[in-house]
Amino acid sequence: MATPILLAPCPEVQPVAWHLSVGIGIGILGFLGVVVPLIRERISRREKAIWTALMALLLFLELRSIRLDEKQHDREQAFAACEQQRSFQEITDQANRNFDATATGLNSSIKGLGKLLGTTQTIFRQTIPHADLRSNGVILKNAPEPSGSFNSSVKYWFDLPFSNEGSRAAHILRKAVKFYVGKPDDLAAQKQIAAEFEEDWKAVPQSNPSPIVTLGGPHFWSESRIFTNDEIERIMKGETIYTVERFEYSDPTGTWRADWCEHYQVDDSKFNVFVIHPCRILMGDRYRAKQP
Fold this sequence. Notes:
single chain, about 25% strand, Immunoglobulin-like
C-alpha cells in the first residue's frame, strides 16, 4: 500500500508595500520632459534643481514599482505552483487509494477462490474411492496389579486395533508403534516425544510383502515393550506411557499416512490403564505422505 505524501498548506500571497502602477511614473516623467521646455523658456538655477529633483523622484518611484511588481508576481507564481502540486498530489493519492482498494478486493477474491478450490478438491478427494485407516485405541493386555506397578523384567504386550473406514483396501507400506514415558497432558513433553518418534521412524523398514487391509474392521496387531528401571521410576513418580502409531499405506489415490498419539491417564500420581487421553500433536487420520 502506497503511503500518501503529506504536503504543508500553501502560504497565502502577502501583498507587497504600496507603489505606483508600473508605467505611471515614467509616463509623468516623459510628459514633464516635453511640456516643461515649452512653457518655461528661461529657467533659473533653483527651478532647474526643483525640476531635476522631481524627475529623479519619479524615476525612483518607477524603478521601485517595477521591483515590487516583480516581487508580487513571484509570490503569485509560487502560490499557483504550490496549489498545482497539491492538486496533483491529491489526484495521485486518490488513484493510489483506488488501486489499493481494487488490489484488496482482488486479493480477497483470489483467497476466496483458493478456499473454494481447496474445498472442491477436498470434496473431490473424498468422493474418489480411497482407503482410510483409523486407530481404535490401545489395550495393555498384561496390565500390572496394582495399576502402575511395572516391573523391568516383564515384557508388556499392547494390542492395537484399527479399521479401514474408506471404500478401498489399503496396502500397508510401513507401520510402527513406539512407546515413550513422559509427563501426562504436557505439550512440551509431547513435542519432545514427537521429535524422538520422527527419528525412530527413519529406521522403520518397508513391509515386504505389503499387507492388505480390507474394508471395515477391527483389525489387530500387537507389539511388546520392556520398560527400563529409570522409566518405571518415572512412572511411579507420576509420569505416563505414551503410545505413538503411524501407518504409511497406498490406495488408488496415492500414498498416505495416519498418525495417532495417546497416553494413559494419571490420577494423583496413580497410573490408570483404563482411561486414555489423546495427544495435542501427531494426530492425523489421513494425510499425503512426503516422498523422499
